[in-house]
Amino acid sequence: MRKLGIDYGDSRVGIAITDALNITVQGLETIHHNGNDKIVLRRLDEILEKYEIDTFVVGMPINMDGTLGERVEVTNKFINKLKCKYNKIKIETVDERLTTVEAHRTMNYLNINNREDRKNIVDTLAAEFILETYMKKI
After folding, report:
1. What is the rounded CA–CA span in Å between residue 30 and residue 51?
2. Which of 26, 40, 54, 59 has the largest CB neighbor count within 10 A?
3. Cross-strand pairs, 58
4. Do the beta carbons of residue 20 and residue 2 sit within 8 Å?
């Protein structure tokens, strides 16, 4: 069974997935939803038809000083939607501090300079870092 990493944002959600043996993590896609979680949940349904997932790993947007900001509340509402719809799938959270910074560093290293490309990739890369963090802990 695979694990699915989720970088939840206001308008985009990055998705990453492990291989079937849970050895590697790769970016899957960025879902553009513009605040409509139904779009995200519909796409997750499609992903679940294709892959056997036993765990969602959601990045928790904790402030740099360790406090919980307003984004945590929004993310928790999304997590509650996941719990209601996918009650047989385990949901874990991971501190996502600096994952977007790492994603930008990676894009710089790879010379991805086109603004539109960067916008479409950054959330997927952040989801990869979230899932990799989780995989190192288990």
Report:
1. 17
2. 59
3. 6, 93
4. yes
Tokens 């509650």, residue located: 80
Estimate the share of the chain in helix, then strand, then coil, as percent rounded to the nearest 5: 45, 30, 25
Q: Residue 94: which domain range?
A: 2-137
Kindly report the CATH number assigned to the domain that includes residue 126: 3.30.420.140
60-88 burial, b for 16+ CB within 10 Å, e for fewer?
bbbeeeeeeeebeeebeebbeebeeebee
pLDDT per residue as tens, the chain (138 positions): 999 999 999 999 999 999 999 999 999 999 999 999 999 999 999 999 999 999 999 999 999 899 988 899 999 999 999 999 999 999 999 999 888 888 889 989 889 989 888 888 999 999 999 999 999 998
Number of structural domains, the chain? 1
As a whole number of angstroms, the distance between CA 44 and CA 34 comes to 16
Rounded Cα gap, residues 5 and 14, in angstroms: 8
